Amino acid sequence: QVQLVESGGGLVQPGGSLRLSCAASGSIFSIYAMGWYRQAPGKQRELVATITSITSGGSANYADSMKGRFTISRDNAKNTVYLQMNSLKPEDTAVYYCNAAYGRVIYWGQGTQVTVSS
């Protein structure tokens, strides 16, 4: 069992930056692939970025619209995965969710709201 708690969301102006954090507890963090997803009002949840487990190399993957603006990273000593978001746009407004995946087992956090508006 893994518990995930996101933090770091809020209101930011267009062009600004935010760093989201997802703290994991309850299991061996390093074996899980971690990911960030988001869901805007009236839209389906979509992939933002993923990062593989340490045993799989810890490599990152991004949705095309986030490449160059967002960076996912993980700190296994702190059992935390981060999402650094730069050059934010109004269309980035959504609830951002963290997940942990190991095989067919997937856990989700409760989400954190990001609002990009002037």
What does this protein look like?
By secondary structure, the chain is mainly beta. It is built from no helices and eleven strands. It has strands at residues 3-7, 10-12, 18-25, 33-39, 46-51, 60-62, 70-75, 80-85, 94-102, 105-108, 112-116. The strands form two sheets. Strands 2, 4, 5, 6, 9, 10 and 11 form a seven-stranded mixed sheet that branches. It has a four-stranded antiparallel sheet with strand order 1-3-8-7, with no helix packed on it. Strand 7 and strand 8 form a beta hairpin. The chain is globular and about 40 Å long. The mean pLDDT is 94.
Structural descriptors:
118 residues, mainly beta, 7-stranded mixed sheet, 4-stranded antiparallel sheet, 11 strands, 0% helix, 53% strand
Radius of gyration from the alpha-carbon trace, in angstroms = 13 Å
Percentage of residues assigned to helices: under 10%
What is the CA–CA distance across the termini?
Answer: 40 Å
Low-confidence stretches: none
Mean pLDDT: 94
Q: Total number of β-strand segments? A: 11
Number of discrete helical segments? 0
- The fraction of residues in strands falls at over 45%
Structural category: mainly beta
**Order of helical and strand elements:** EEEEEEEEEEE
General form:
globular
Tell me about the largest β-sheet.
7 strands, mixed
